[in-house]
Design brief:
By secondary structure, the chain is α/β, with parallel strands linked by helices. It is 50% helix and 17% strand. The protein is built from 6 helices and 5 strands, in the order βαβαβαβαβαα. Helix 4 links the parallel strand 4 and strand 5.
Length: 145
């Protein structure tokens, strides 16, 4: 699967760790930066990843200190449903119930192994397509228009 990933300075180390992990699982990873732990403004990177995900219909991963800032900027892009996930349950629910297409992680909250488990669940979980969930995602899409 093609994945698009990005982070700010707080998420840089976790991003690099996840890239290796995902490539080891056979995924193709496009890295939209940042490329160091030097302080940067997260909106630039979050918006770039979200825009690329929306255009390519692939999935994305955004990482900052809490995951919150990245989710806020990503959700400004039409077609994006970014979810901050702190455990495997929230990752599964984000995909099954909300058809989330970007996973947002908090590097200052999660250990690397936790982040890997959450990411794996997010990527392996399909949208349930149950009528109630489709209806709710369709409502989100209408609000974007």
């Amino acid at each position: 699967m093609k994945l698009i990933i990005g982070s700010d300075h707080a998420g840089y180390r976790l991003k690099e760790e996840l890239k290796k992990y995902l490539e080891g699982l056979g995924h193709t990873v496009e890295d939209y930066g940042t490329n160091s732990e030097q302080s940067v403004d997260y909106p630039k990177f979050g918006y770039a990843v979200a825009s690329a995900v929306a255009k390519s219909r692939s999935k994305g991963i955004l990482i900052c200190g809490s995951g919150i800032g990245m989710s806020m900027i990503a959700n400004k892009v039409k077609g994006i449903r970014a979810a901050v996930c702190h455990n495997e349950y929230t990752a599964r629910a984000a995909r099954e119930h909300n058809d989330a297409n970007i996973l947002c992680l908090g590097a200052r909250i999660l250990k690397n192994e936790e982040a890997k488990k959450i990411t794996k669940v997010f990527l392996e979980t399909e949208f349930s397509k149950e009528k109630r969930h489709r209806k709710r995602v369709d409502e989100i899409k209408k609000l974007e228009s």
